[in-house]
């Protein structure tokens, strides 16, 4: 599992592109190039400024979501060869994301956010989702967070 620590994602991807070229790993090279492209697009939107960790995670999550959606579409169209290729790309992208939280860890964070904010009704769902998502930062997807939140709100 690849973890994003002090080295920002762009530098890590550039190093991985070089490694993939040397290893002749076409799939990893393709994925790393698509991540680098998404980073460059994001940087040009922000006038060439550096991208923070949170933005890097959002870029990776967006790319992962696109691959998973492609797998679903290709599978329903009986294009299993393309679905397999997209799934392998998704697996590589996941290596750059933080480790997924367990249900217990997610429950603990949600309980902490609910108690610290004092919000506990379903009308506060949007604000609670925002707070929990910030705390999880790529370690849990929105669907899981919202289903647990809904079960805890009155």
Task: Give the helices and strands, then pairings.
Blueprint: H1 9-23, H2 26-45, H3 53-76, H4 80-96, H5 103-117, H6 125-136, H7 142-152
From the structure above, extract its key features.
Hypothetical Protein Yqey, Chain: A, domain1; Arc Repressor Mutant, subunit A
Count of β-strands: 0
| CATH topology tier name of the largest domain | Hypothetical Protein Yqey, Chain: A, domain1
User: What's the end-to-end separation, in Å?
Assistant: 39 Å
What's the helix-strand series?
HHHHHHH
Indicate the low-confidence ranges by residue numbers.
1-6
Largest sheet: none
Overall geometry comes to: globular
User: How many separate structural domains?
Assistant: 2
What percentage of residues falls in helices of 4 or more residues?
A: over 70%
Counting helices, strands and paired strands, the structural category is: mainly alpha
CATH superfamily of the largest domain: Uncharacterised protein YqeY/AIM41, N-terminal domain
Level-1 CATH class name of the largest domain: Mainly Alpha
